[in-house]
Amino acid sequence: MTELLVGTSKGLFVLEGEPGSKFELKTRAFVGEPVEYAMRDDRSGRLLASVTSPFYGPKIFHTDDPSGEWEQATGVVVPEGEDVALERIWSIAAGERDGALYAGGDPGVLFKSVDGGAAWQLNEPLWKHPTRPHWQPGAGGLCLHSIVPWPGEPDRLALGISAAGVWLTEDGGETWRQGNEGLVARYGPEDADENTIALCVHDLKRAAKRPERMFMQFHGGVYRSDNGGEVWTDISAGLPSDFGFPIVLDPGDPDSAYVIPLSEDDRTSPGGRVCVYETRDAGASWTARGDGLPDEDAYLTVLRQAFGRAGEDSALELYFGAKSGDVFGSSDAGESWFTASTRLPPVLSVTVSG
Amino acid sequence: MAGSLRELEHKYPELAGWILDERGRIRRHINVFVNGERAAEDTPIGTDDRVDVLPAISGG
Asked: What is the ipTM metric for this complex?
């Protein structure tokens, strides 16, 4: 049985099912509220959700039972007295230490919890970083959306911020430095400073079995780094479009990555054909994986947090949702796809637990 | 007004962040009234005034 946590513009949908057929709706939560992200911490079983009420602002909630009461987490605020407010929490990720969790949000903020998500604390060194006045928001805001731990090394972390590039720490977030060499901001003027910080990272992931290797979906370009995010190489040759939002890896194969190309013009499936692309040679070549996906007049938009996975190797399960309200799944590492749900509200995020 | 709402948050900590944001601004879709008149952060409040805090009616 597979569980999907589907964050939508109208609440959280918890779906359950056997891969291959339509999933059952188990429960809803935060009905009518935008749920940007929800995840189950496999270590504790606890569910966490980020919710941005248009009335009451962004909050993180947690529960052990999604159909029961949710409790509001504390500390998810930026300092008072500055002319800045927290706009949104984009992502929640498990850290390497037991009970450690990270949350990233707009305006380019990182929070950490050491108690499984009940209490949070702002990372001050990133908040006060001297380059911050030069950080520019992307179309979705100044969003810290990617939080990438290093397996077995709890003090090492990589972050992706749109549009302020990649940030790396080796001391648990006491100091931060950039990791942007090789990234090309095609959207900037031709004579733009090659050291620009205005880098629109869309998603960032690390290969579990080779942690110095990372993959990135950029705003125009898919990249790989083999040195922990210091230097990046474009690997998008062979894709129908190098624009897209999410990127997902098979944790069993450090040469693997999956992307969902979108047309750069309108952010929808190129040519009305929904297709996932897979590499198994670290980006040297890409294979179309569209068997079972809509292939005619289907102009879907798949957002950055709306592509999740569980398992690995031949048992890799992949799921993605679209703004159309459709959720598609594969239980054979992308070889074939089925419709897990349809006619949900616009899907903002999909995470998977077994 | 802003000071009174902050006092309210201190008295009822579970309200913190629900009416005012970190800047001390009333959230965009929250409406505050003094004696039935629409008010803002800098609206003065007297001891006998009545304050209503209401979320906006919205759709979509």
From this structure: 0.80
